[in-house]
Write a structure and sequence with these properties.
With about 230 residues, this protein is mainly α. It has helices at about 5-25, 35-40, 45-50, 55-75, 80-95, 100-110, 115-140, 150-165, 175-190, 195-210, 220-230. It starts with a helix and ends with a helix.
Length: about 230
């Protein structure tokens, strides 16, 4: 890499880091390009030259976050079925490290009206979930009769709903992880091969013991449903 290209790469990294920090501190994506340039220590023209727009900066932040997530997920020594559940666990670990930042991002994506930006966020993550499902099908944990696209979309949307509840302070991070695992286990049990189904049923029984309603705690389901619909 030439010195010029290295300098551009360094400045891109500075700007992405500054944008992520602005989101974390402000609990909002509503920073200006001037504020971003000042926080990055570069001229106002530099973010535009390197990313084209603020939307381009936010897309770059999304890309680096996804790369970090994939690195952690794929670095775990687990079989293809466990790796689907690890997607929930690794997400929870990242959320615990920077809760303000990830809550801001989740709320922003939920409200985002720009279809291009929403697709830039959603499509690569959907592709990752589909890859995990396909791996589980190939290793005969999930029935080959299952459509990988349909199953991965279902799993993704289920987890997304729990993330939104957490991002809006309606459930704790611990409940997000437990509910995510439980939802995945129940869904996958219906799609599993005979050899994997018993394993998933055991997991369901173990997980449901951690849920407040299974312990006999009082749960206001009507209020909980109202909160879900209000997101």
């Amino acid at each position: 890499m030439s010195k010029r290209e290295q300098n551009k790469s360094d400045k891109r990294g500075q700007i992405i880091t500054a944008a992520r920090e602005l989101m974390r501190v402000r609990s909002s994506t509503g920073f200006s390009m001037r504020q971003l340039a000042d926080a990055s220590g570069v001229s106002l023209a530099t973010p535009y030259n390197l990313f084209g727009s603020k939307q381009g900066v936010i897309s770059a932040v999304m890309d680096t976050d996804l790369d970090d997530f994939k690195g952690r997920l794929m670095g775990l020594d687990s079989d293809p079925l466990d790796r689907i559940f690890n997607l929930v666990s690794v997400s929870s670990q990242l959320f615990a490290e920077k809760p303000n930042y990830y809550k801001t991002g989740a709320r922003a994506m939920h409200r985002e009206t720009d279809k291009t930006l929403k697709s830039h966020f959603g499509l690569p993550r959907q592709a990752l979930m589909k890859h995990l499902v396909q791996q589980a099908i190939q290793h005969e944990y999930i029935s080959p009769r299952m459509n990988a696209d349909s199953l991965s979309i279902t799993l993704s949307m289920q987890f997304y709903s729990w993330i939104q509840l957490w991002a809006n302070d309606q459930i704790t991070l611990k409940e997000l992880e437990t509910r995510g695992h439980y939802t995945f286990a129940v869904t996958l049990a219906g799609a599993a091969t005979a050899s994997a189904r018993e394993r998933l049923l055991d997991q369901i029984i173990q997980l449901q013991g951690s849920l407040p309603e299974s312990r006999g705690d009082s749960v206001d389901f009507s209020q909980y449903e109202h909160k879900r619909q209000s997101i």
